């Protein structure tokens, strides 16, 4: 057995690992090693979560954001885009599409706003959807108080996505404005509050950020394990021209390398946390034609077909080359069905597709 095999088997069998082992796996590069990593991640996926891809219809319901993350295209400081919030009717229409097409679950995502009107709106649409349709709801509306998270939960959402973006406090500081509202500790506290409120917890990072090291990424995997997350979203960082981080574009890894490193992170996370849900992020497709299929083959098991009305999609561009800008919900559905079949999975229609990890913890 070569060393790559030993390390991979070690992680699978022991269920513990060191940063050094993760670093070793992230550095694998020969075709044989990568094939073995992929086959192992695939086998673990099959055994612990099945060869099933769950769908979450994604509704990007507002691009208004009070924050200024240095990487993001809808940051408050970008005055070049019109700001929108979908109406309740538009959201209900998207939810109806998800229900009729047996998607099972929705993700309601927006920029971060903490005013009462916004919070009330989120509660209202969540409970309106839950009253009418049997759909699982994941929220992704940024940092909120513990009290607000409780209200969201009581409205009927049961999963929440809040990426840590990077588990390194130093790197976090470099990719956010240096002020009190972009604070690493606050983000960590929010993740704990979400758990306390009862949510299935999803977090994640961007891969290929300027200044990011392999040690940072190995630390991210450790961070996920220590926090005992239920779901992960790991996607490549993609530069956006109207953001401050764009100035470092020449220092980035080439897109193919960023894609490969993201796929390795997904595979290693599947080995490290066997029964969690891992999303095949849309950004993967922005840097690689078959990015999302490849992620499903490397251990991811969730895809988010876009349900945002076509006229609003262009106004919700966190990064450049966002896919599906000119497609509608129907076209994305057909396209993703094919992609999932290519990856060798079946689609988990008509079920919420909750994290096995969350359910296993409660047993
Ligand atoms: N490239 C890739 N992902 C991005 N996000 C924001 N901006 C970018 C970018 N330029 C991701 C962040 C955020 C999620 C909603 O979108 O990780 O948490
Ligand atoms: Fe706002 Fe989220 Fe973009 Fe940061 S990443 S600017 S919080 S939408
Ligand atoms: Fe939208 Fe392929 S997923 S067109």
Radius of gyration (CA) equals 19 Å
Largest sheet: 10 strands, parallel
* Strand fraction: 5-15%
Termini distance?
Answer: 36 Å
Q: Give the total of beta strands.
A: 10
Helical segment count: 15
Can you write the helix and strand succession as a string? HHHEHEHEHEHHEEHEHEHHEHHEH
Q: Helix- and strand-based class?
A: alpha/beta
List cofactors, ions and other ligands. 5'-deoxyadenosine, iron/sulfur cluster, FE2/S2 (inorganic) cluster
Low-confidence stretches: none
Can you tell me the overall shape?
A: globular
What would the average pLDDT be, to the nearest integer?
96
What do these coordinates show?
This protein has 363 residues and is of the alpha/beta class. The chain has helices at 3-14, 19-26, 31-48, 88-100, 116-132, 146-155, 169-174, 184-196, 214-227, 255-272, 282-287, 291-297, 310-313, 329-342, 356-362; strands at residues 52-62, 104-110, 136-140, 159-161, 200-203, 206-207, 231-236, 277-280, 302-303, 346-347. Strands 1, 2, 3, 4, 5, 6, 7, 8, 9 and 10 form a 10-stranded parallel sheet that branches. The two termini are 36 Å apart. The model has no long low-confidence stretch (mean pLDDT 96). Bound molecules: 5'-deoxyadenosine (5AD), iron/sulfur cluster and FE2/S2 (inorganic) cluster. 5'-deoxyadenosine is lined by residues 71-72, 163, 165, 206, 235, 237-238, 240, 283, 318-319.
């Amino acid at each position: 057995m070569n060393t790559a095999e030993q390390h991979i088997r070690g992680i699978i069998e022991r269920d513990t690992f060191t940063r050094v082992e993760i670093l070793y796996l992230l550095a694998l590069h020969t075709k044989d090693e990568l094939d073995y990593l992929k086959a192992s991640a695939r086998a673990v996926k099959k055994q612990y979560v099945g060869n099933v891809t769950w769908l979450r219809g994604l509704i990007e319901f507002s691009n208004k954001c009070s924050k200024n993350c240095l990487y993001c295209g809808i940051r408050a400081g970008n005055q070049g885009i019109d700001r929108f919030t979908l109406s309740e009717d538009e959201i209900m229409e998207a939810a109806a599409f998800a229900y009729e097409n047996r998607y099972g679950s929705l993700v309601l995502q927006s920029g971060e706003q903490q005013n009462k009107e916004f919070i009330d709106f989120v509660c209202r649409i969540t409970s309106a959807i839950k009253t009418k349709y049997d759909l699982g709801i994941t929220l992704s509306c940024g940092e909120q108080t513990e009290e607000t998270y409780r209200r969201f939960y009581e409205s009927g959402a049961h999963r929440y996505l809040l990426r840590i973006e990077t588990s390194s406090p130093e790197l976090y500081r470099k990719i956010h404005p240096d002020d009190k509202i972009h604070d690493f500790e606050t983000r960590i506290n929010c993740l704990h509050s979400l758990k306390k409120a009862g949510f299935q917890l999803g977090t994640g990072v961007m891969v290929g950020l300027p200044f990011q090291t392999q040690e940072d990424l190995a630390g991210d995997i450790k961070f996920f394990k220590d926090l005992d997350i239920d779901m992960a979203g790991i996607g490549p960082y993609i530069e956006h021209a109207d953001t401050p981080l764009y100035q470092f574009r020449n220092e980035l890894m080439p897109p193919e390398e960023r894609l490969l490193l993201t796929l390795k992170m997904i595979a290693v996370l599947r080995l490290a946390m066997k029964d969690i849900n891992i999303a095949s992020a849309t950004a993967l497709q922005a840097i690689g034609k078959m990015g999302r299929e490849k992620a499903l083959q490397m251990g991811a098991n969730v895809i988010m077909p876009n349900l945002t009305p076509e006229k609003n999609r262009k106004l919700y561009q966190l990064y450049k080359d966002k896919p599906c800008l000119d497609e509608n919900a129907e076209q994305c559905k057909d396209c993703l069905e094919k992609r999932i079949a290519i990856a060798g999975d079946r689609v988990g229609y008509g079920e919420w597709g909750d994290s096995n990890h969350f359910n296993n913890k409660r047993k």
